[in-house]
Design brief:
The structure holds two protein chains of two kinds.
Chain A: H1 14-47, E1 60-61, H2 65-93, E2 101-108, E3 111-115, E4 121-123, E5 125-129, E6 133-140, E7 145-149, E8 154-158, E9 164-169, E10 174-180, E11 193-198, H3 200-208, H4 220-226, H5 229-232, E12 251-253, E13 259-261, H6 264-272, H7 295-307
Parallel strand pairs in A: 2-6, 5-11
Antiparallel strand pairs in A: 2-3, 3-4, 6-9, 7-8, 7-10, 10-11, 12-13
Helix pairs in contact in A: 1-2, 4-7
Chain B: H1 22-26, H2 31-59, H3 70-105, H4 114-138, H5 156-186, H6 199-231, H7 244-278, H8 285-298, H9 314-342, H10 351-374, H11 376-382, H12 386-416, H13 422-449, H14 463-493, E1 542-543
Classes of the chains: A alpha+beta, B mainly alpha.
The structure holds copper (II) ion (2 copies).
Chain lengths: 328, 546
């Protein structure tokens, strides 16, 4: 198999194998059907090819009604199997089991926010225990989004102004993609995240151990991507948010006319209460990261921003494609 | 051409050379000339939309967004969709071939309302101007299945321009439908009873019903969007207390039937091609004719299958899934009947027939994946992924364009009076078939892997399939360019076409190529059923073994 191209998605939830089985059934019937028709056509093309220019077809006499009924009723029966089977899978996927843990998901242009039952919050990362039913109650803070985890065959629209629910029970530990599947504006394709399925004891460790217990986050650069700072702050465009490259140590003009020096405390304040000092020419759209980020992480971010050289001099991690996830 | 050419007087005046000058074309009331004007118009938009597709596939060859910014990429796929659907696919067969052929096929001199026919062309061109102007900067997006009336911000001025444009265009669509229906009812030649009509005419009758019933809904929706943007009445936008899901309902109530506006006429062409190139009476005439009507009616009741996971109740989901399954049956019936038509035929693989066979191939895949999508348990996974993208391209690009090109090649000698190069036309039909499948089949795999649609950037592990798809698009692009070249070439250098180059049945083959201004030298009288091939030479009696 080509190293870079899976042919099948990971099968990592209880729902996944059920959807796959149904899918294989319909594919099987479809292939059978198509092969029959194509073979018949090819046979006719050969057998009844025109032999001389003035030839015409031969009239078919007899009762063709039975034939017409047969090829209406047999496909009808097959699609009905597909219908009932599909509806059964669908009903099951829409009824969370009673023992499911309840999580909240918020969609926002262009990030996912998750709240654990204990109140712990994450952005674009989602840690869950394996073999435990998880119920998601979801809403959007702006437009319609769609929360999708292919490895779980899980997908649900996330609507503004109301809740939708979905549930899953992960069956394999690992890291998998979260995608937004509903077109939601400019950075739709960056509204992606990672779901980490952990052993129950690891999940407990992660819960008490602070956000970095997930293991991956080590440096400010990774945090900058993990916390989705890069969806707004990019080194190639200042359309949504100021370019941070080279800003550290410079003076910044604010919307209210003041100027401030971009130092450690300014950056910290920008992260924790962005609304208190608005950069001139920008809308106050930056979300607060209060309660979602530890003091250590703030320091790491500051170090990272401090290191960013003015445009072109250093490569920012922004716009990095999401890394490969899951195993098949 | 090897086909038997019935002797015809091709000299003298015809609709092409009867009058001269730009004015005689732009103000023409001749349905044939109006068909040609549409042909020119939609060809330009097809090339534009195709260029955008090329840019999109170039961008998607790599996982990073390295050619365009996300904003430009989003506009590209939006414009690609709008141009291809509204300015190419919807008008393609009805406006070009339908306008040209429908009156001739029923032995009439013109459509029932020739002036109306010209009038509806004007707003269409007008509307095109609006869209091309508004879309790139105004994000005129709610027209397509982009389903996010809440995402973009139209400025009030643009709302008015757009709403008026769509409104007028909507009327044009309704009027076309009316014109066809009235023509079919009132202007058939003596002896041409309903069940002697060619199936092409039946398909257009069904399409016209959809246009008349569906278009007002989208017009009202657009009006509501306009009112909301102008007066901030909460209808769809959660900002004002509206419901974006309501927009989806109204949008799909029109847009699902609109899919049949694109595919039914192609099915009509298919019936003509399969009978002509197997020189045989169509199998199951009534079943094919009524399946079109059945599709037109049930097609209005399945819109909810676009919204299984949009927060609609599970019961509603189940009902829509059930109705979707029903609508699959008449399509299957058509395929079976075309296949059965080949039985004991005299089959010739000339270019239009190659397209017809290509149609069956891609329509099988497009239709069967449609059944999968209608299956709830699968839809909840592949919804809004590349699986959908692949599916609707198989139906709309694959099937509808195969039908259109097949029809264009079939009637080209009639329309222009010239034969095109047979070798190159066959090569191009094959190249298009290969290019199409190479482009879109990998997208089914991408979809099942979970790649979402409308993604500017994607995870690196999806790249191989995307590269394959982009490579296919290059082949497909060349395939589509070839007909442009040899068809234009034929206008000047092609052999003169006889009245009936294929030895086909149908009133259009009884008049000269190209036809005279009034279509027939003497008004025709119909004495036999459609596709009565077998009666023209004595045929042995055979019986089907059922
Ligand atoms: Cu989104
Ligand atoms: Cu999105």
């Amino acid at each position: 198999m080509l190293p870079n191209s899976p042919v099948f998605p990971p099968v990592s939830s209880t729902l996944a194998s059920k959807v796959d089985l149904l899918f294989f059934f319909t594919v099987g019937v479809s292939v059978l059907f198509s092969v029959l028709i194509v073979a018949t056509i090819v046979a006719f093309l050969v057998k009844y090819r025109r032999r001389h220019a003035a030839e015409t077809g031969q009239e078919i006499k007899g009762n063709t009604l039975i034939l017409e009924l047969a090829w209406s009723i047999i496909p009808l029966g097959l699609v009905m199997i597909s219908f009932f089977w599909g509806a059964a899978v669908f009903f099951e996927s829409s009824r969370p089991p009673a023992d499911a843990w309840s999580f909240h998901v918020y969609g926002k242009q262009w990030m996912w926010k998750v709240e654990h039952p204990e109140g712990k919050r994450e952005i674009n990362e989602f840690h869950v225990p394996v073999n435990q039913a998880v119920k998601l109650t979801m809403t959007s803070e702006d437009v319609i989004h769609n929360f999708s985890v292919p490895a779980f065959r899980l997908k649900m629209d996330v609507l503004p102004g109301r809740y939708t629910t979905a549930w899953f029970k992960a069956t394999k530990t690992g890291t998998y993609h979260i995608f937004c599947d509903q077109y939601c504006g400019v950075d739709h394709s960056k509204m992606v995240g990672k779901i980490h399925v952990l052993e129950p004891q690891d999940y407990q460790k992660w819960l008490v151990g602070g956000a970095s217990a997930g293991g991956a986050v080590a440096t400010g650069g990774e945090l900058f991507v993990a916390k989705a700072c890069n969806t707004c702050h990019r080194s190639d465009s200042s359309a949504r948010a100021p370019i941070l490259d080279g800003v550290f140590g410079k003076s910044v003009s604010l919307a209210d006319g003041r100027t401030v020096l971009a130092d450690e405390s300014y950056v910290r304040e920008s992260i924790l209460s962005p609304a208190s000092k608005i950069v001139q020419g920008y809308q106050p759209i930056m979300p607060t990261f209060k309660d979602q980020i530890s003091e250590e992480e703030i320091v790491q971010l500051i170090r990272y921003i401090q290191d960013l050289k003015p445009a072109g001099a250093a490569a920012a991690p922004a716009a990095a494609a999401p890394a490969a996830g899951g195993k098949s | 051409m090897s086909a038997p050419a019935s002797p015809a007087e091709t000299g003298g005046t015809n609709y092409l050379n009867a009058t001269h000058g730009i004015g005689s074309w732009l103000l023409t009331r001749d349905h044939k000339r109006i068909g040609i004007l549409y042909l020119l118009g939609i060809s330009v938009f097809f090339v534009l939309g195709g260029l955008m597709a090329v840019l999109i596939r170039a961008e998607l060859a790599t996982p990073q967004g390295d050619l365009f910014s996300s904003d430009v990429y989003n506009r590209l796929f939006t414009m690609h969709g709008i141009l291809m659907i509204f300015f190419f696919l919807i008008p393609s067969i009805p406006a070009v071939l339908g306008n040209f052929l429908l009156p001739i096929m029923i032995g009439a001199k013109d459509l029932a309302f020739p002036r109306l026919n010209l009038a509806q062309l004007v707003p269409l061109h007008d509307r095109r101007g609006d869209d091309v102007r508004v879309a790139p900067d105004g994000r005129h997006r709610h027209r397509l299945d982009l389903l996010h009336s809440d995402v973009d911000e139209l400025r009030p001025g643009q709302v008015i321009v757009t709403a008026v444009g769509i409104f007028v265009a909507g009327f044009s669509s309704i009027l076309t439908g009316l014109n066809f229906i009235v023509t079919i009812h009132r202007m058939r030649a003596p002896g041409l009873t309903w069940f002697r009509l060619p199936l092409f005419v039946w398909a257009h009758y069904a399409t016209s019903i959809i246009q008349i019933l569906g278009t007002p809904v989208i017009a009202i929706t657009i009006l509501l969007v306009g009112a909301e943007r102008l007066f901030h009445i909460g209808v769809f936008d959660p900002k004002y207390g509206g419901d974006p899901v309501l927009f989806q309902h109204l949008f799909w109530f029109y847009s699902h039937p609109a899919v049949y506006i694109m595919i039914l006429p192609a099915m009509g062409v298919m019936s003509e091609l399969v009978t002509a190139f197997s020189r045989k009476r169509v199998f199951g005439y009534h079943f094919i004719a009524f399946s079109s009507l059945f599709i037109a009616v049930i097609g209005f009741l399945v819109w909810g299958h676009h919204m299984f996971i949009s927060g609609q109740s599970v019961v509603a989901g189940a009902i829509f899934s059930f109705l979707t399954m029903l609508v699959a049956i008449p399509s299957a019936v058509k395929v079976f009947n075309w296949t059965a038509t080949l039985y004991k035929g005299s089959i010739s693989l000339q270019t239009p027939m190659l397209y017809a066979l290509g149609f069956i191939g891609v329509f099988l895949i497009g239709g069967l994946t449609g059944v999968m999508l209608g299956t709830l348990g699968i839809n909840i996974y592949v919804h809004d992924t590349y699986f959908i993208v692949a599916h609707f391209h198989y139906v709309m690009v694959g099937s509808a364009i195969m039908g259109y090109l097949g029809g264009l090649h079939f009637w080209w000698p009639k329309i222009t009076g010239r034969m095109y190069n047979e070798f190159w036309s066959k090569i191009s039909a094959i190249v298009i078939f290969i290019g199409f499948n190479t482009t879109f089949f990998p997208q089914f795999i991408l979809g099942y892997l979970g790649m979402p649609r409308r993604y500017h950037m994607y995870p690196a592990e999806f790249q191989t399939w995307n590269v394959l798809s982009s490579a296919g698009a290059t082949i497909l692009g060349f395939g589509y360019l070839m007909p442009v070249v040899y068809l234009l070439w034929s206008l000047k250098f092609g052999a003169k076409a006889p009245a009936n180059p294929w030895g086909a049945k149908g009133l259009e083959w009884e008049t000269s190529s190209p036809p005279p201004v009034l279509n027939f030298a003497t008004p025709p009288v119909v004495t036999e059923e459609a596709y009565a091939y077998e009666t023209s030479t004595p045929a042995k009696e055979v019986t089907v073994g059922v």
